[in-house]
Amino acid sequence: MRVFCNGLNLYGQLNTNKAVVGNLEPVFEFEVIRKMCINYCFSVILTSDDCLICWKNEMHLVPRKSGETILHVTSNDERIISLSETGKLAKSDLDKLCDFKEMMSILSCESAEEKIINVSSCSKLTVAYSNKGAIFNIPNRLHFINPHIVDVKCGREHCLLLDQFGTVYSFGRGSRGQLGHGKLDDEEEPVLVEALAGIKITQISAGGWHSGALSQDGDLYIWGWNGNGQLGLCKRKTDDRAAEDNSVSVMATPHVVDFEDSERNVIKVACGGRHTLALLDNNHLFGCGWNKYKQLKNLEDENISVFTYLHDFEQDEVVDIACGPWNSAVICR
């Protein structure tokens, strides 16, 4: 499997000597890649057997207890958090990565029948949920309980939760509309995103201060801060010139995105710090938002406010797409 990446590489997180990777190009290759996280200065790759860090163009092995398998990994700019198959979470802070000492345990459930099954982290919060439906805004256990939760995604200051019925909940900071509740208030506990009620959502993504959700019908809904055009809601001019500058700075309610080819469905979405990726069902990659470090495309435009064609992956089997603050990644088999 290969990972195609672009964007800023000032800290050697993309395994290449280029300071800026202008076009998506393969920079990692492993037999199996289960997960990839890109942060400001390092990347994390979970393979079939190991968890690896790419930092300063060097690959380092993340330590784990003997005989214990890492089931999932997440990271932010300060630390790596791993989830073992036994449901235990552990962390290693960035300032200690050079030592690569054994990770310190941060959370385990009190009951033998209950265990953590997923976790997501960003710079301001780390959220996990258990097989019993308990939600942890680590280290605190929330009052909200939903045994049907199937996914969690953290943005810089907010969190999205998805249950098996396609219902989306959000909590955290709402000052830039990233919660999708039609207002800018914060929420300490998960609250239903009412604008998406009745729509079967199959995938969620949380960016710096914006959010995305993909419906069963292949529609992309997006909301939150639009300071760099990351919502992609601008209208194109009929003469195919640049998009009209008619976007709003904050969209506090989910809105559906219109693509040029209305017959195509969106099959994957990823939200970065200030940019967004969308993969269509023909394996064409589109993106919008901040492009200062070529995290979208090798163009001089610093902001791209309409979803723009980036790359054709028709010859590849795309497994996943991911965004970092200043990077984009496409994992292919």
UniProtKB/TrEMBL annotation:
User: Which SUPFAM superfamilies does the entry mention?
Assistant: RCC1/BLIP-II
Q: Which residues cross the membrane?
A: none
**Known Pfam families for this protein?**
RCC1
Q: What is the recorded name of this protein?
A: RCC1 domain-containing protein 1
Q: Where are the RCC repeats?
A: 166-217, 218-282
